Amino acid sequence: MIHFQQGVGNDQPGIHSEIASNNLKSFETVLKGLIVEELLTEKPLFLIAYDKCGINPKTFDVTIKNVKWDGADALAIAFNDITFQEKLIYYKTTNENKDRIIATVSHELRTPLNGILGLLDMAEKKIKDAEVLEYTSLGKDNANLLLSLVNSILDMHQIRAGKLKLAISKINIRKCLQGVI
User: Fold this and answer.
1) Element holding 7 (H helix, E strand)
2) Cβ pair 106, 154 in contact under 8 A
3) Which of 99, 122, 140, 146 is the most exposed place for a label (fewest CB within 10 A)?
4) pTM score, whole prediction
């Protein structure tokens, strides 16, 4: 199957032809059926060819020039396989979008988490009932764990962007292990 397209996308006006055959005669037939002036425009021209199973597409950038051949007018057609470049652009764009979404979501989560922690701090100072104080403390511990996870996600984003700055700090191991035991 060969898909022959001129223009930037499927919604673009221009040439769209499909050839349900694997031979060059069919491609030649499509070319002959097209208006030469349309082919020689500055619009990008692409050819997408599939393997026999119709699964693995290859994308070609097609260049068509009007030339003289043995004194007669002719069309010179050059095919440049751009499949790898297309995939590279796709994966790079997808990865950038993923990173942007992760960073945005992480920032949006951190703000309300800090608000929750602030409210739990205020509640801890005013609560006299031991049972309610225990629940408040548990909620605060879990909110801190969630905030730590969000911060780790942001750190991973900064590592990928090459912008992470390390800071040396002291930690209380006993306090860290109390939450585990």
Assistant:
1) none
2) yes
3) 122
4) 0.46
CA-wise closest residue to 87 among 61, 62, 57: 57
Q: For residues 3 and 131, give the distance between their C-alpha atoms in angstroms, rounded to a whole number.
A: 70
Where do the domains of the chain lie? 2-81, 87-165
Closest CA to 121 of 103, 137, 101: 137
CATH of domain 87-165: 1.10.287
Name the percent of the chain lying above pLDDT 70.
Answer: 69
Which SS3 state, helix, strand or coil, does residue 22 take? coil
Tokens of 104: 């945005």
Please tell me the distance from the alpha carbon of residue 5 to that of residue 18, in angstroms, as a whole number.
9
Instruction: Report the distance separating Cα 53 and Cα 161, nearest Å.
Output: 40
Q: Both ends of the chain: CA-CA distance in Å?
A: 63
154 close to 103: Cβ distance less than 8 angstroms: yes
Helix (H, G, I), strand (E, B) or coil at 163: coil
Strands 58-69 and 16-19: unpaired
- Please compute the mean of the pLDDT values over residues 50-60 and round it to a whole number: 71
Q: Tell me, what's the pLDDT at 123? A: 92
